Amino acid sequence: MVYLIMYVLLFPLLFLGVNMQTVQTEVHPLLTGLVMMFILIRITFFPFFILENGFNTFKSYRFSLAMTKGNVLTLLIIIAIVASTHLLQIAAEYLGYSLVSWILSLINAFVIIPVVGVVMSIVYIDMMKAYKGGSDPSVIDNII
Prior knowledge:
Blueprint: H1 2-15, H2 20-42, H3 46-53, H4 57-68, H5 72-95, H6 98-130, H7 139-142
C-alpha cells in the first residue's frame, strides 16, 4: 500500500522533468524505505501488548502508536546502535576483510540478535512507565 501511495505522490516529479529511471531506482525506493521505517518504528511494540495485556491486534497497534508518539528519535538512536555491528560486517565484507566479517557475523548471531530482545523489552518497560495516555487511545490522535 505504501509502495503504491509513494508512486502516486512522486508522479508530479515526471512532469518536472526528472528522469523516470531516476524516480524508479533512486527516489522512490529511498522515500518508501524512510516511510516504512517510520511506520515500523511506530508499531514495533504491538506484540508486547498482545502478550502482556491480551489485547487484540488493532488495540495493540493503537497502544503502540500512542506509546511511541514523541519517542521516534530515541528509537532511531537505539536501532542505529544495535545495527552498527551489522553495518560494520557489511563494510568489512565489501572491503575484502573476510576474517573480520566472519567474526562480526558470529558477534551478530550470538550476541547482538539475542540482546535486541532484551533491549526492546527494557525500552518497552521504560516507555510504559512514562506513558500518560488513556486506556483506549485513538489512531487519529497518535499518527504523527
